[in-house]
Amino acid sequence: MNEFLENTKKNIHLRTAHSELVGYWSVEFGGRMNKVFHIWKYDNFAHRTQVRKALAKDKEWQEQYLIPNLALIDIQESEITYLVPWCKLEKPPKEGIYELATFQMKPGGPALWGDSFKRAVHAHINRGYTKLVGVFHAEYGVLNRVHVLWWNESADSRAAGRHQSHEDPRVVAAVRESVNFLESQQNMLLIPMSFSPLK
């Protein structure tokens, strides 16, 4: 893991020369050990295809980063997601920690559960203990999956805010409505890398 991250830090500029890196994190809690999570931005599918073709021809990228790291990667997963219409990507006010909450919703899509999910997210925002970075809906990968990326000043401030929200009747009511459409949830605590645009 350390070797992978050192090589990534050293050569990430070769990758960001082709498309925008939104954020790059290591997973601290809630997921597999020695796992990284990163988000890349594309204008559309044609843009992503163009970037992939350019990377395939970039010998410096392949020789200095891709080939040396292949032996260090155990498993890799990729999803295509988009920001939900009622959310824009926000940048936190300062460095902190991130939480990725992944919700597996019931089949039916946002037409079925979108409004109640939005109310649950906004109920947490209105508490003020956490900052919403983005809400992403899966287009390719497991369908009816929504990722909510939160920023907190620290893991302890996040824990304190969560405990307070559990006693807020407005949050409880919004969450109680939303869970009627929920099948499962996983939360991961993410630590941003030094080269991550989101820190």
TrEMBL record:
<feature type="domain" description="NIPSNAP">
    <location>
        <begin position="1"/>
        <end position="88"/>
    </location>
</feature>
<dbReference type="InterPro" id="IPR011008">
    <property type="entry name" value="Dimeric_a/b-barrel"/>
</dbReference>
<protein>
    <submittedName>
        <fullName>Protein NipSnap homolog 3A isoform X3</fullName>
    </submittedName>
</protein>
<dbReference type="InterPro" id="IPR012577">
    <property type="entry name" value="NIPSNAP"/>
</dbReference>
<dbReference type="InterPro" id="IPR051557">
    <property type="entry name" value="NipSnap_domain"/>
</dbReference>
<feature type="domain" description="NIPSNAP">
    <location>
        <begin position="98"/>
        <end position="197"/>
    </location>
</feature>
<comment type="similarity">
    <text>Belongs to the NipSnap family.</text>
</comment>
<dbReference type="GO" id="GO:0005739">
    <property type="term" value="C:mitochondrion"/>
</dbReference>
<dbReference type="GO" id="GO:0000423">
    <property type="term" value="P:mitophagy"/>
</dbReference>
<dbReference type="Pfam" id="PF07978">
    <property type="entry name" value="NIPSNAP"/>
</dbReference>
